[in-house]
């Protein structure tokens, strides 16, 4: 799971809701997750357009639907991001398919998109 500070979470939630409104059916929240839809991540969520998370100093992380949503039960999938009042944590699902680099001296983070299929062969 990922956790976003409230102000950032509200922007993300509004953008997901806007993009999903014409293609997905919103249902009530599940298991502490606020934004849920009817269907499955692998079917209905598959065509959801990727979103970019923009960080200070220009770092960007593009998140596909498989890293953005989690199956919350039979026929319901939800945004796999939780509101936080004090911190932000980019979870493992969002980081899938990326190398993550940290420059501790400059206090910067870098994301490098990797093609996992190239690693399998």
TrEMBL record:
It holds the Pfam family TAXi_C. GO terms for cellular component: extracellular region. GO terms for molecular function: peptidase activity. GO terms for biological process: proteolysis. SUPFAM superfamilies: Acid proteases (SSF50630). Residues 1-112 form the Peptidase A1 domain. PROSITE patterns: PEPTIDASE_A1. It comes from the Eukaryota. Keywords: Hydrolase, Protease. PANTHER family: EUKARYOTIC ASPARTYL PROTEASE FAMILY PROTEIN, OS07G0603500 PROTEIN-RELATED. This is Peptidase A1 domain-containing protein.
């Amino acid at each position: 799971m990922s956790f976003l500070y409230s102000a950032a979470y509200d922007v993300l939630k509004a953008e997901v809701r806007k993009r999903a409104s014409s293609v997905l059916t919103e249902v009530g929240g599940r298991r502490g997750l606020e934004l849920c839809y009817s269907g499955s991540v692998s079917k209905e969520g598959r065509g959801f357009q990727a979103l970019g998370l923009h960080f200070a100093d220009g770092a960007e992380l593009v998140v596909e639907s498989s890293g953005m949503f989690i199956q919350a039960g039979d026929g319901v999938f939800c945004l796999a991001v939780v509101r936080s009042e004090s911190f932000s944590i980019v979870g493992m699902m969002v980081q899938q398919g990326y190398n993550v680099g940290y420059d501790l001296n400059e206090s910067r983070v870098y994301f490098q998109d990797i093609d996992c299929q190239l690693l399998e062969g």
